[in-house]
């Protein structure tokens, strides 16, 4: 097999360069002389993640498709910590990316199974209030483009960044309780009735019909016993915002300086 470099990284003070090769070895080089200093052995598949510590020039993190995460002392050529990303019932999960926190006390990784792995010092209590499975109900919604080639959500015909805050659901699309919905930015202070999503039946790619979140249920529809419609809610919200803007424009026009004939002066 012809060796190929898959990733390269400089350490924090630029004295060393670490290269990942497709024969699963990491090589540590002197950046000034080009001398090979160490071969780091441990990975069993290709490595595409090399992350240097933010302030400790000795430390380098590597992670690969074999599910292994290593923390190396590159000055000595030794491993200081090792973690294997084993997923129960599914084998290992390939690690696709890693990043250190600015203080160097934590690092986070993402894997091929959609997991976010957080490592570090201190207490894990702040993370215990978070459910194991967290997705937004809009994560896999199809997009379309309008006549100006702008992206729109296919279901609501609205720009994604203008849509209401999404709901948190599990991997099967089932909504989490209201206490979790308040973790979504924009829903922190919502009343309980605004945290109850509208459920509907959606066909999956393999033909199975499952119940999933499709939008927000409005209070008016609940009281009238009508079938909830996310589009109706969107239209009402857009109309309300437009009325508020028009009212503000009329108020500013009427309060501006006027000439003797009662016509507003041009700015």
Automatic annotation (TrEMBL):
Keyword Mitochondrion: no
Polar residues compositional bias, start-end: 249-261
Gene3D superfamilies associated with the record: YVTN repeat-like/Quinoprotein amine dehydrogenase (2.130.10.10)
Gene Ontology CC terms, in alphabetical order: nucleus
Keyword Repeat: yes
UniProt xrefs under SMART domains: WD40
Residue span of region Disordered: 239-267
Pfam families named in the record: WD40
BP term (GO), one: cytoskeleton organization
WD repeats: 1-39, 40-82
UniProtKB keywords: Repeat, WD repeat
The organism's place on the tree of life at top rank: Eukaryota
The protein's name: BRWD1 protein
